[in-house]
């Protein structure tokens, strides 16, 4: 069986001590659960604390996390996914715990 190919692997340690990590894989072929043909995990938080996350874990489909809240995410394009994640991260950086994305 062919394996997924890592197409983006970006990790940054931010001045506030938080971590931003984006990992995206291209699947050998689309699946019913991942029709866009991608597997992804986008994370913003601190060790042991996810503040914002976007992923499509098997069995859950496309979704995002804001602290303890998990919401469906409507995937359209890879650039939009990254843009949505960075927008949520920028809101959190600007406002801290006082804001909830979208």
Please give a structural write-up:
The protein is an alpha+beta fold and about 100 residues long. It contains one helix and six strands, in the order E-E-E-E-E-E-H. It has one domain (about 5-95). The chain has a six-stranded antiparallel sheet with strand order 1-2-3-4-5-6, with helices on one face. The model is unreliable at about 100 (pLDDT under 50).
Task: List its traits.
102 residues, alpha+beta, six-stranded antiparallel β-sheet, 6 strands, 18% helix, disordered C terminus
Topology:
Elements: E1 5-13, E2 19-26, E3 38-46, E4 49-55, E5 63-66, E6 69-72, H1 78-95
Antiparallel strand pairs: 1-2, 2-3, 3-4, 4-5, 5-6
Summarize the structure.
The protein has 102 residues and is α+β, with helices and mostly antiparallel strands. The protein has one domain (5-96).
Average pLDDT, rounded to a whole number, is 91
Oligomer: single chain
Which sequence of strands runs across the widest sheet? 1-2-3-4-5-6
- The beta-strand count equals 6
Query: What gap, in angstroms, lies between the N and C termini?
Result: 39 Å
For the biggest sheet, the summary is: 6 strands, antiparallel
Q: Give the overall shape, derived from the CA principal axes.
A: globular
Helix and strand sequence: EEEEEEH
Structural category: alpha+beta
Return residue spans where pLDDT drops below 50 for at least 5 consecutive residues. Answer: 98-102
Return Rg in Å: 14 Å
Task: Work out the helix count.
Answer: 1
Beta-strand percent range: 35-45%
- Helix percent reads 10-25%
Total count of domains: 1
């Amino acid at each position: 069986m062919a394996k997924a190919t890592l197409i983006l692997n970006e990790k940054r340690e931010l001045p506030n001590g938080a971590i931003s990590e984006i990992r995206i894989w291209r699947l050998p072929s689309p699946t019913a659960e991942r029709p866009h043909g991608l597997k992804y995990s986008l994370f913003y938080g601190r060790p042991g604390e996810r503040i914002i996350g976007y992923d499509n874990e098997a069995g859950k489909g496309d979704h995002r996390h804001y602290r303890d809240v998990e919401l469906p995410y409507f995937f359209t394009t890879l650039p939009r996914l990254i843009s949505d994640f960075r927008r949520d991260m920028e809101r959190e950086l600007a406002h801290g715990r006082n804001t909830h994305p979208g």
